[in-house]
Structure formats: C-alpha cells, structure tokens
Specification:
Layout lengths: L1 H19 L8 H10 L3 H8 L4 E4 L7 E10 L3 H9 L1 H4 L5 E6 L16 H8 L12 H8 L6 H26 L6 E2 L6 E2 H10 L2 H6 L1 H9 L8 E12 L2 E14 L2 E11 L3 E12 L9 E11 L7 H30 L23
Antiparallel strand pairs: 1-2, 2-10, 3-6, 4-5, 6-7, 7-8, 8-9, 9-10
C-alpha cells in the first residue's frame, strides 16, 4: 500500500509540473531557452536527447570574432555542478592546463606564486617596446624591464617573472576596486587596444543572451556586480596550451542563480597572447521532466575576439581555428559530463510518464 500511495503522489507532482508548463508540456521553457541560446536545430535537439554531446560554430558578430557552443544533458544536480565548478582548479584540470590558481579576495602575492612566464615569453620581453611586443603584458612590465641592468639569462628570467607577477597583481587589485574602468589597454601593437571597449562591444552584440537573460546581461554591462544574495564571483588565473604559444589568462567568474537555472559568465580580463577579448557563458538548467532534481541541461558558449583573424589571411585562419575550437569543445564537454556523472550522487529518474518517452517530445517551436 505505501508503494501505491507513493506512486500516486509522484503522478500528482508530475501532473502539477506539466500543468505549470502550460501548452508546452513536453517542451517547457527551460530547454527552449537553451535551444535559442545555442541555436540548436531540431536534429541537434534530437541528438542531445539521445544522449549525445552537441558542439557547433555560431555566427560571429565581428570579423575577428569566433563563436562556438556545446550542449549536453548530464545525470547530475545543478547544486553538484556548481559545487564542482567553484573548485575551478580541479574542474579545469586537464593536460592542456599547465598552471592554474584561484585568487583570494582581496588578492595578495601568494595567489600568483605558482604562475610563471613561458621561456619564449621571457625572451620576447627582452626586445619589447611599447607598441611592438610579441607578448601582451601590462605597460609597466615593459617600462620596468627596460631599466633593468644587463645580467645572466637566469637573473633576467627571475626578474622578469617577479616584475610580471607584481604588475599583474597591481592590475587585478585595481580591477577589483574599479571594475571595467581598470581593464587593461593592450600596447603590444601599433595603437592601444581597450579591453573594456572590446568586451562591451562583444556583449552588446550577443542578442540571444540579451533577450533571454536581460538582467544577467545588464549585470555584466555594469562592469562591477553588486553584492546580491543570488550573485557570487571569483577570479582565477591559468596558463594553458593554445596554438603555438601557451596563454596566461585571468578570468572573472560571475554566477547568477535563479530557481530553476544558473547563468555563469567567464569574463577574460587578461590574456598574454591571441585574445583581444573573450566571454564564455555557461547555462545550467534543471531538467523539468526529472522531478528528482538529478538531471540537468548544460550549455557552454564562447565568443572571442582573436587578433590573428584580421588582415589578408584572416579568413583562412578563421576556418582552421574554428574547426579546432569546435573539436576541442566536443572533447572538453564530454570529459566534463563524464567527470560530473562519476562524482555527483544520482537517483533513479523517470523521463517518460505523462509526456511519453524523451525522444517522443515534439520539435521545439523557435
């Protein structure tokens, strides 16, 4: 008898959930938002519901922009995903991530103690001038190293790394206090390039994000997130393999939680190579067909402005880099799914019921 009562209770809960979804019972609003954000076709949606990771290139909004998306369904709760994500050093662990560290608030020198310039970047700094440099660094790094006396290669490397960490820390402390007003102006090429201008241009052109999450988009546009209960943030640095040179970057993570989903922005506030600006959006949506709360949809999207994509060879480079990014997106997202499903506790879920099996869902109306 208890089993019968429990079964009836579950059917009532499922019926209430379906009624609250209105006319879109088998295709509720949460997955619809995900599909619009990632521009999923009907075929891609069916692949996703069949247990596949879907990755694709998105339409760029700028000649130097690359945009990619990856979507998966994961047998894990949103709470477990966020717990794993907050431990960013473990979450991003992979052969391509050579160094990584999460910054404390306020940041201090110990936060950057494990960060080091690649030997080829140290050598590049020897010949750096403002407006002509093979590595992107704060201007003060170039100015201070220009005043350094000649010494051994080992002494120069140690001093270059020390100055780089000191000036990067000063920059990060300014950013924490002033927000986007303190964002770096890159001076590695002719004419300064404002990261703030590039970021806000990238953000304003992201129409799907602006339409689906206007409050979150406005939060990012303000440049300094307010202290709200449903918003949390942290900074981390990493050195990762990318192209011919490893890239040192610093990322500002902003997590905005709503009752059935979480929006996460990963805003690049510094990069030593290639990137003029980069913004990644992660959308974690509770699966409305799983009342146990142990199934989510996970979408990851990235829009980046790449300095190599300008000029005569920009089109050729775009096709090559885009292919690599889509392939990398698919591999990385599948690894993330595997990690989450192996580490997050799960319960037996039912995805059929009154709406029928998952693959019987009607195509989304977009």
């Amino acid at each position: 008898m208890p089993d019968v009562i429990e079964h009836g209770k579950n059917r009532v809960l499922r019926l209430l959930a379906l009624l609250s979804a209105g006319a879109m019972c088998c295709y509720p609003q949460a997955p619809d938002s995900l599909c619009r954000l990632a521009a999923l076709t009907d075929e891609e949606w069916q692949l996703l519901e069949g247990g596949n990771v879907v990755s694709k290139a998105l339409k760029p909004n700028h000649e130097r922009e690359l945009a990619v998306a990856g979507v998966a369904r994961v047998r894990a709760s949103r709470e477990c995903f966020l717990e794993r994500f907050r431990d960013i050093e473990s979450f991003k662990k992979s052969p391509s991530v050579r160094q990584i560290g999460k910054l404390s608030a306020p940041s201090d020198a110990w936060d950057l103690a494990g960060l080091s310039l690649d030997p080829q970047d140290v050598e590049a700094l020897r010949d750096c001038d403002i407006g002509s440099c093979k590595v992107k660094v704060p201007v003060r790094v170039i100015q201070r190293l220009a005043c350094e006396p000649e010494g051994s290669a080992r002494d120069y490397s140690a001093r270059a790394n020390s100055i780089f960490r000191e000036e990067l820390l000063t920059y990060l402390q300014s950013y924490r206090f002033q927000g986007d007003r303190a964002l770096i102006r890159y001076r590695d090429k002719d004419g300064p390039l404002s990261l703030a201008e590039q970021f806000h241009s990238l953000l304003s052109g992201w129409s799907e994000l602006n339409e689906l999450a206007p409050e979150f988009s406005n939060l990012l546009a303000r440049g300094s997130p307010p202290a709200l209960e449903n918003v949390e943030e942290f900074l981390y640095w990493s050195k990762e393999a990318f192209g011919l040179k490893p890239v040192i970057s610093v990322t500002h993570v902003i997590i905005y939680q709503l009752p059935d989903r979480a929006w996460i922005a990963s805003k690049q506030i510094y990069a030593s190579h290639y990137f003029d600006a980069s913004l990644a959006i992660t959308l974690v949506v509770d699966d409305p067909a799983d009342l146990s709360g142990h199934s989510i949809y996970l979408a990851y999207l990235n829009r980046s402005r790449i300095d190599l994509l300008g000029g005569i060879l920009g089109g050729l480079r775009r096709s090559v880099v885009r292919g690599r990014l889509v392939g990398g997106m698919s591999r990385n997202l599948q690894q993330t799914v595997t990690k989450l499903e192996s580490s997050c506790p799960t319960q037996t879920t039912s995805r059929g019921g009154l709406c029928g099996p998952v693959l019987a869902r009607p195509s989304p109306q977009r």
